[in-house]
Amino acid sequence: MDKNELAVKEMQEGNIEEAAKLLNEAIEENPKDAIAYANFGNLLSAVGEDDKAIVFYDKAVEMDEDLATAYYGKGNVFYTQKKFTEAIDVYQEAIVKGLQQGDVYYMLGMSFYLLEDYRRALPSLSRAVELNEEDVDARFHYGMCLAQAEEVDQAMIQFNRAIEIDDQYSDAYFNLGVAYAMKNDAEKALELFDKTLEIQPDHELSANAKIQMEELLRQGE
């Protein structure tokens, strides 16, 4: 392993000081090591030094304008800061530069999603699911975007798949229940709202929806 690889390993194990030492050495030995600067950006971001992290990501890109991971790291800083428009720009640049991993599409999709631009979130979240079928959060939010687009049947498929991956995913049960309510299946919706509350007793939306479904069922008796 070179010092960059060792530093990443140390970061993954939570040894931040040792990782910083290795990255400093890597930069001293090769001041044009763009990957070392990007990794240092990741380290600074991990400890909440966002402004300093951006300086290191920018330095990495200055040395290697095709270093996709530096754009991705910078996007994550903007995302954490809730600067979603800025995050979108650099996530898209990371993809243009060749980063084809589920995570970057998920983060791009979530940036659009949190701006309530569901139409533009949809293709990114779809791609995230294609690249990582077990990413339960990507699948759930893909379902949410489909629901916003009134593709309820397709949304239900994604919510069901999310539950298969994680049978404790309360929001997937809740939104699947909402979908059944939209299809006028109050009994199935109630069952799913009950399941949501079993997993998360303080789920207020589900508690309110449960009352509504119970009232509908009483009226239908």
Question: How are the secondary structure elements laid out?
Answer:
Elements: H1 3-12, H2 16-29, H3 34-46, H4 50-63, H5 68-80, H6 84-96, H7 102-114, H8 118-131, H9 136-148, H10 152-165, H11 170-182, H12 186-199, H13 204-219
Helix pairs in contact: 1-2, 1-3, 2-3, 3-4, 3-5, 4-5, 5-6, 6-7, 7-8, 8-9, 9-10, 10-11, 11-12, 12-13
How would you describe the overall organization of this protein?
This protein has 221 residues and is an all-alpha fold. Helix content is 79%, strand content 0%. It has three domains: 1-81, Tetratricopeptide repeat domain (Serine Threonine Protein Phosphatase 5, Tetratricopeptide repeat); 100-167, Serine Threonine Protein Phosphatase 5, Tetratricopeptide repeat, CATH 1.25.40.10; 168-221, Serine Threonine Protein Phosphatase 5, Tetratricopeptide repeat, CATH 1.25.40. The protein has helices spanning 3-12, 16-29, 34-46, 50-63, 68-80, 84-96, 102-114, 118-131, 136-148, 152-165, 170-182, 186-199, 204-219. Helix 6 (84-96) runs antiparallel to helix 7 and helix 7 packs antiparallel against helix 8. The mean pLDDT is 94. Keywords: Repeat, TPR repeat.
Shape: elongated
SS element count, helices: 13
The CATH topology of the largest domain: Serine Threonine Protein Phosphatase 5, Tetratricopeptide repeat
Oligomeric form = single chain
Q: Give the rounded overall mean pLDDT.
A: 94
Most strands sheet? none
Query: Beta-strand level of the residues, as a percent range?
Result: under 5%
Poorly predicted residue ranges? none
User: What is the number of strand segments?
Assistant: 0
Number of domains: 3
State the helicity in percent bands. Answer: over 70%
How far the N terminus sits from the C terminus, by CA atoms, comes to: 70 Å
One letter per element, helices H and strands E, the order comes to HHHHHHHHHHHHH
> Based on the structure given, which CATH architecture of the largest domain is correct?
Alpha Horseshoe
CATH homolog superfamily of the largest domain: Tetratricopeptide repeat domain
- The CATH class of the largest domain, by name, is Mainly Alpha
Question: Rg to the nearest angstrom?
Answer: 22 Å
- Label the structural class: mainly alpha
TPR repeats: 34-67, 68-101, 102-135, 136-169, 170-203
InterPro entries: TPR-like_helical_dom_sf, TPR_rpt, Ycf3
Keywords: Repeat, TPR repeat
Pfam families: TPR_1 (PF00515), TPR_11 (PF13414), TPR_16 (PF13432)
